[in-house]
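HUMAN: Quick job: go over this next protein and say how the chain folds.
***
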Amino acid sequence: MGRPRLHNTEEERLNAARRYRAKYYERNKKVIGLKMALKYRRKKDDTHSDRAPKQLSAPKLSSRHSIPSCTTSPENGVICDIDDAQSKLVAICAELGPLSNRMVHDFQDHREGVQERLSQHLQTLERVQEYLRFETLHADSDSSRMAIVAGVMCRSKAILMAAEELWCYSATSEIDEEMIPKFRRRGLLFQTIV
């Protein structure tokens, strides 16, 4: 025997669906409003495509809060959501190993290129941490969301420390005598955060 019907008539079913949508909207009013405003701005800019493209930014929630901008182009470096922040962290973490290999095996030939790439990663990590601080300050009382943000924040701090360590090694004119033994015994910070 199956469970009893929750809604016996079509009208009851429609009313239950309306109540559910109203509750969902009340819980997510800020996010829905921001998404709709961003969608409106994109649509508005698409209709005026004869003008030079301008950078889109999310609307301000109120005069007290500033909302980070999120544009349509992924290469601008703006972090749009927690998944974007996590993907940037994974990409940076994956590249730390090859960068340190280049430094260990041929320091003088690769030092400047490695240092430049690490500088770019450090800037990206700063943007990730800025986004995570914003999420922490402006998040509602959603404890699961806060736990996710806290976990990503912890991982980003560890990756930041590892990238800074490698950058410091690359900033010297000669390879540091400690770096190669540390690298071989897997004692560099990036080797411990795998």
Observations:
- Residues 107-138 form the longest helix (32 residues).
